C-alpha cells in the first residue's frame, strides 16, 4: 500500500513541478513590441524562474529585432534571436528548448548583450525560463499588439479589429483588462482547484480500497 501511495505522490509532485504549472505570471501589455512609448519597464530585479505570459497584446516573444530600441516599454528591449538555431524557434509537442535573447540598443546594435532562456510548449501556451537583465531600463518583449485607440474598441480591447463603438464611454475601459484575459486566468485557477479537490480524494480512496 505504501508503494502505491508513494507512486501517486510522485505523480502529484511531478505534475506540480512541471513548469507549465508555474504561478509566476508576466502580465503587462506595455511589453508589446508595438509600444514605442517609454514607460520604465525593467527586468533588473526579475526573479529567475519559469514565467507564463498573459497579455491581450500577445504572449509570444518577438523574433525580429526592434531596431533602435525604445520599444516594449523600455529603452533596451530583449527579443528572441534565431541566430544559431536550426528549425523552429518555438518548441512543439510539449518540448523544451534553449534559446538566446538579444538586447537591442538605441545606437542600433541588435545584439550587444545576450541572455540564455528556455521555452517550453505547454499545449495552449508557452512558459519561459527567464533570468534578470543587467541595468535599467532593459526588459523582455512580449506581444505585438496595442490597446485600441481612444473611441474604438474590440472584443479584447486590443488591436487588431478595433471598431468605432457608438456607446460613449466604452473607449474609457480600454485600460481595464478585457474579459477574455480575466477568463483565461479564472479558468487556470479553476483547473488547479479541480485537480486538487477532485483528483486527490479519488487517489486516497483508491489507496484505502487497495490497501
Ligand atoms: C552564435 O554562435 C556564435 C559562435 O558560437 C556566437 O559567437 C554568437 O554569440 C552566437 N549568437 C547568438 C545570438 O547566440
Ligand atoms: C539547456 O540549458 C539547460 C540549463 O542551462 C542545460 O542543463 C541543458 O543541458 C541545455 N540543453 C541543451 C540541449 O543544450
Ligand atoms: C465614431 O463614430 C462617431 C459617430 O459616428 C463619430 O462622431 C466619431 O468621430 C467616431 N470616432 C472615431 C474615433 O472614429
Automatic annotation (TrEMBL):
- Keywords, ordered alphabetically: Disulfide bond, Signal
According to the record, the signal peptide region is: 1-16
Q: Which Pfam families match?
A: D8C_UMOD
Q: What is this protein called?
A: UMOD/GP2/OIT3-like D8C domain-containing protein
Q: Which InterPro entries match?
A: D8C_UMOD/GP2/OIT3-like (IPR057774)
- The record places domain UMOD/GP2/OIT3-like D8C at 60-141
Q: Which species?
A: Mytilus edulis (Blue mussel)
